[in-house]
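Weekly sync, protein design subgroup
Attendees: M.S., D.O., the rotation student, P.L. (late)

Item 1: inverse folding check
M.S. brought a backbone from last month's batch and wanted to see whether the design step gives back something sensible before we order anything. D.O. pointed out we never logged the input encoding, so this time it goes straight into the notes. Structure tokens as presented (435 positions):
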């Protein structure tokens, strides 16, 4: 028995996703620009895809490709380049983007924090600051007050656990911290930041805009499997790691509690703070037991080499292509009883036939999950265009649109046709399923 597919939107949402720093160019007031200029990376973002200048051309391209949804982020440092000083030109720029999208009947999905932070914010202490959530909420209030009339879907924070891991634990991203203690503080503040932002957004829509709005995060989720299937230790570690990586942040914001045994236990107001679940899915991981003390409890990701024929093909960064994992992740979310938006799913490759297969197989996995009663609102491929892939530079090619970084010319890849074909087929399947 399957349940009726329901959505507040007129049709299944599908399209692509991007983030400001990766495509706009010359984001000079954020921590990533400063990090790049310090010489810590081989490549700097520079003009990136020059989207700040070419956004109308790119939106026209989105429209021609048939997309009915587009996820993008607003750059905090453009809008608030100095503390409590607002750049009205930047706000007008994002307003222009929204109007271009709405004129073409493309649903905008707006992300408020996608890894980058204003330099002034980081120099004050960044996400270690006790008032970091309040500073973020002030920014959110400004943005939503100005742009909210054209937006129904907001994502407050993109991949909070990934940001925490690379910026405050591993230290590969700015500010380059290597501190487990700091990571706990940042985790708490990111949870508070989302909850405060959620409340601010809903207050504005209820009091001023008087219309419906849906708010969530974009949670990076991966499918995990035991390195040794017959090992009880490996299976237990997979269960623990899956909760820690996939569900800890979701449960913290939704249940009003920050909890991890032996580290912290702090209550937040028990109020709903997720209207849907935004997920980013790319691959699966094999996990091996390492020990039962401290961080070893979460085990270790093992090399794929010794899994031989069990490993499917990989993308250009060595991530395994595993569409079954997307289906399994979606099934695991049913217990949370919230609709799901696939906010990112993509592949970096120079082989567009491989990208075409990736899209076809992953959209099919989504369709399979929907038929088994997972309520999925939409699917967004990462990414619209090839772009600046953080510490990996410009080499990874994720886009369904090729970018020549020397001339900034765009060329649609054949995989864009597969995205439209697969998603339209999925839309039609949902209509039949609902009836």
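Designed sequence read out in the meeting:
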């Amino acid at each position: 028995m399957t349940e009726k597919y329901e959505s507040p939107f007129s049709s299944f949402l599908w399209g692509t996703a991007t983030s400001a720093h990766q495509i706009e160019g010359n984001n000079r007031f954020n921590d990533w620009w400063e990090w790049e200029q310090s010489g810590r990376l081989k490549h700097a973002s520079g003009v990136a895809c020059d989207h700040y200048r070419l956004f109308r051309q790119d939106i026209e391209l989105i429209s021609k490709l048939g997309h009915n949804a587009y996820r993008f982020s607003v750059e905090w440092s453009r809008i608030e380049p100095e503390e409590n000083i607002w750049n009205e030109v930047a706000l007008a720029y994002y307003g222009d983007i929204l109007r271009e999208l709405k004129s073409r009947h493309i649903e905008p999905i707006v992300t408020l924090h996608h890894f980058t932070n204003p330099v002034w914010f980081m120099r004050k202490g960044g996400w270690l600051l006790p008032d970091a959530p309040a500073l973020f909420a002030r920014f959110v209030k400004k943005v939503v007050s100005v742009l909210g009339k054209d937006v129904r879907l907001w994502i407050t924070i993109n991949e909070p656990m990934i940001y925490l891991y690379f910026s405050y634990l591993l230290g590969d991203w700015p500010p380059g911290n290597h501190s487990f203690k700091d990571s706990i503080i940042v985790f708490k503040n990111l949870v508070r930041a989302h909850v405060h932002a959620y409340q601010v957004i809903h207050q504005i829509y209820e009091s001023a805009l008087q219309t419906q709005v849906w708010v969530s995060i974009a949670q990076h989720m991966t499918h995990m499997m035991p390195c040794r299937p017959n090992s009880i230790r490996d299976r237990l570690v997979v269960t623990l790691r899956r909760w820690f990586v996939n569900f800890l942040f979701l449960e913290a914001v939704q249940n009003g509690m920050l909890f991890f045994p032996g580290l912290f236990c702090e209550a937040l107001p028990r109020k709903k703070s997720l209207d849907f679940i935004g997920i980013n899915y790319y691959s699966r991981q094999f996990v091996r037991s390492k020990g039962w003390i401290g961080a070893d409890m979460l085990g270790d990701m093992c090399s794929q080499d010794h899994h031989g024929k069990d490993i499917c093909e990989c993308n250009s960064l060595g991530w395994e292509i595993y569409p079954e994992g997307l289906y399994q992740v979606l099934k695991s979310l049913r217990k949370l009883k919230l609709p799901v938006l696939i906010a990112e799913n993509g592949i970096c490759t120079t082989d567009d036939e491989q990208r075409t297969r990736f899209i076809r197989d992953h959209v099919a996995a989504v369709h399979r999950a929907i038929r088994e009663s997972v309520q999925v609102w939409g699917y967004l491929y990462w990414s619209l265009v090839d772009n600046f892939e953080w510490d990996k530079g410009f080499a990874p090619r994720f886009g369904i649109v090729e970018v020549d970084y020397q001339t900034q010319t765009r060329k649609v890849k054949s995989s864009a046709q597969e995205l439209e074909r697969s998603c339209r087929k999925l839309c039609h399947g949902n209509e039949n399923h609902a009836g």
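Discussion: The mean pLDDT is 90. DSSP finds 13 helices and 13 strands in the chain.
Action: P.L. to compare against the previous round before Friday.
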